Amino acid sequence: MTPEHKAGFISIIGKPNVGKSTLMNALVGERLSIVSSKAQTTRHRILGMLNGEHKGTEYQIVYSDTPGVLLPKYELHKSMMQFVKSSLEDADVVLYVTDVFDEFEDLDFLTNWKDFTETPILVLLNKIDLVSMEKLEEKVAYWQGIFPGKPIIPISALESVHLDQIFSHLMEHLPVHPPFFDKEELTDKPEKFFASEIVREKIFLNYKKEIPYSCEVVVTSFKEEPTILRIATEIYVERVSQRAIIIGHKGENIKKVGIQAREDLEKFFGKKVFLEQFVKVEPDWRAKTDKLRSFGYSLD
């Protein structure tokens, strides 16, 4: 008799900056998603696979990190929300991530989905390491009122506190199903995607205000040689003034981004990396559907 195998899609959703990407990385055990103190850093839906065995049952958990739920201002935002909606449609379990400072907002499709979905929901109250027990109890009661009858699990994604409780709940709800992906795969994204995300993360870390949100990173060349990986990228901005800021005086700013990105790229790919960066101006690219499609965003 063939041993039982469970597999399913687990969607991680919530507002920007509540710790979804930190949670995703902690659950998968690998750094797949950008982590930044700035909101709206995740723009795509990123899958991360966790394979193993639990009490004699093999499993494949397919975690789905999604952009933070917001009211769209650009075509880019509409695409980001489309990733969220598609994630909800195929979810076997939804992890609704909030934090101890967050409050629920009536954000159209999310409210409708919450009230009518039959998909199991776990509410994860993140960043519990930052508040007192009294404050935590208040927030648990608050979110229990928003999601009546749903499990509320206080966690710290950064400190990996109570993440085992999430796993226990998931194994209860995970359907019996063969694996969706090869057991050797860690993610559905190609290596080029992570190269661009690592560069984009360094832009978020090094620039302020609107600059990081106006940037898109495209890998134009990805050549793997025996001893070195050669990567060429184009950084798109919306205005000439932004290009000057990205480059900096005598190229100091872009050089710093390159040094930091190359260091992480070498850790990620496990070999030496030669990184080229070019900065280009594409006016209002966040509002141009044709440009967004060429960058890999879904607008359907």
TrEMBL record:
Positions of region (G3): 65-68
Region (G2): 40-44
Region (G5): 155-157
Limits of the Era-type G domain: 6-176
InterPro entries documented for this protein: G_ERA_dom, GTP-bd, GTPase_Era-like, KH_dom-like_a/b, KH_dom_type_2, KH_sf_prok-type, P-loop_NTPase, Small_GTP-bd
Chain ranges of the KH type-2 domain: 207-283
Record region (G4): 126-129
Xref: SUPFAM superfamilies: P-loop containing nucleoside triphosphate hydrolases, Prokaryotic type KH domain (KH-domain type II)
Localization (cell): Cytoplasm; Cell membrane
G1, as annotated region: 14-21
Keywords, comma-separated and alphabetical: Cell membrane, Cytoplasm, GTP-binding, Membrane, Nucleotide-binding, Ribosome biogenesis, RNA-binding, rRNA-binding
Topology relative to the membrane: Peripheral membrane protein
Keyword Transferase in annotation: no
Free-text function comment from the UniProt entry: An essential GTPase that binds both GDP and GTP, with rapid nucleotide exchange. Plays a role in 16S rRNA processing and 30S ribosomal subunit biogenesis and possibly also in cell cycle regulation and energy metabolism.
PANTHER family on file: GTPASE ERA, GTPASE ERA, MITOCHONDRIAL
Protein name as it appears in the record: GTPase Era
